[in-house]
Amino acid sequence: MTDAAARRRRDAGAGTEEPGPRVFVSGRGGADAARGLSSRARRLLVNLLLAKAAVDLLFVCALAAGSHYAAFRPSFRGSLDHADAGSVRGWVMDRAEPNRRVEVQLYLDGRLAASAEASEPRPDVAARGYAPDDRHGFDFRLEPLAPGEHEARVYAVHASAGGRRRTLQQIGPAMKFVVGETR
What residue numbers bound the domain in which 27 lies? Predict the structure, then answer.
C-alpha cells in the first residue's frame, strides 16, 4: 500500500480525530495530483485568499479612518503663540463653525491647569483672514510656578460620539519655558 493510500484509508475510517471533509493536496504529480487540487485550482485559491486579505485590510483602514475623523475634527486651526512664567497665549477657531467660540484647556507639565473659552480679541487673526471676527484668542494668566523648566500644551475641546464624549485636540506644538530662581 502506498503512503497516499494509507493516509486516505486512515482518514476515511471511523474514529478519526478531527471531523469534517479531507482535501488531499500532494506535491507530487501523477495520480496523487489528479485526486487533489490541480495547480490551476491552487493558484485560484491563493489569489482568492490574497484578495480577501486585501479587502479585510481596506475595511480595517476605513474603520480606523472613520473613527479618527469622528473623534478628531480636522477643522480646528490655531496656534500657541507665547508661554512664560506669567501667561500662555494663542488663538483657536473651528473652521466648520467659524463664529462659534472654542473651549480650550491649558495643561502645564502634563496636568490640567485651566480651562476657558477662546473669546479674547485677536485682531491679527481676523486681519489674516483666518476668522470672520477677532474674538478667538486665549490668554491664561498663571499662578507662580516653581523654578525650572515647564511645558505648556493647549487643547481645543469638542463633543464627539454624538455628544456623549468630550475630545481634546492639541493646538500647535507644546512650548517649553524656564522659570528662573529668585534670590
Answer: 3-12+21-71
